[in-house]
Here is the input.
Amino acid sequence: MNTPQHLESHYDSIVVGAGPAGTMAARHAAARGRVLLVDSSSLPRDKSCGGMLNEYSQEFLAEYGEMPEALWLEPRWVNFRYHDWDRKIRKPTELRFANVDRRGFDDWLISLLPENVTVCGSTALRSFEQRESGVLARLKLDGTEAEVACENLIGCDGPRSSVRRTLGVGSVATYVTLQDFCAIEGPIEPFFDCIYLRDIGDSFGYAYVVPKGDVAIVGSVFYPKTKHPHVKHDQVLEVLRGSLPLGASRKREAWVALSVRDRHDVVRGKGRVLLAGEAGGFMSPTSGEGISYALNTGRLAGTAVAGHAPDDALRAYEQASAHIAGNIARKLKWLPFMESRGGKYLAGFVPTPLVSRVTKGL
Here is the structure.
């Protein structure tokens, strides 16, 4: 990895977005030639995220060496727990997450990049166009605009992907997510709690609580087009503080996450432009988990670019990622029932061992 004083006029590949999908795409695309990896945020970036790595992410990352000790937060491991707050039902599962600092995690992934990957933070993609000779991207860095050509461009720029929007292949609705980092003022159980509250309103999906060192992340997920989500999130905090040792909020983060509703929300790209991670619609519609999808699709996109002619990379990527798109399509069949009041109610009667098995598949 290197950081440039100025941009070259041509790279073999350009990757937009320096999260898990983008870093994996850049790392593996580098086998074909020079790669430019850009992100509109300054690096290391702050991504609003719980920083929880499921077992699929853990297995994937084992190939790249051990994560540095500094990334781990206490408790190092947390198990997922279904929590029906109103009926006082708690069902711990065997689904275990690695508890990491998300900012440090993204920075560690960037450190894995080879020397022929150039990384530029605070660099926005303004536009691009596909030509017979390749892709011409227009970038803005430190107030200066530059045109940079490449053979393939890979969009890994998240749920509000400018690459996907420019391709004109259809947008995906988004959830609103809010999370507070609250001081911990007493003993708190080492679980990743998914909490269902019925009094917040129909636009409220669920809340989650996970301890992260001396704070706990308390988050709320709201359905698309929710009005006044900050007010509703304050209501969630008030309810949870009545029973959990949650002190003052040190900071609040707001972001969006994909609300995948149809198999056609998954789009791998067009022409010489590929889409990976949330930009391509890759996120679990039933659990909202996205890091494992980002890692896997980023690697597949980069590998397709490295191993095929520029005009054939998309076809190869579509074939290689077909099983992931199929996984999302299967989960979509369960989504209406899971989101219904009846589904959430019946979950309280499911035996705990079965909850573990079902949750693993979400």
User: Anything to note?
Assistant: The two ends are 35 Å apart (CA to CA). The mean pLDDT is 93. The first strand starts at residue 10 and ends at 16.
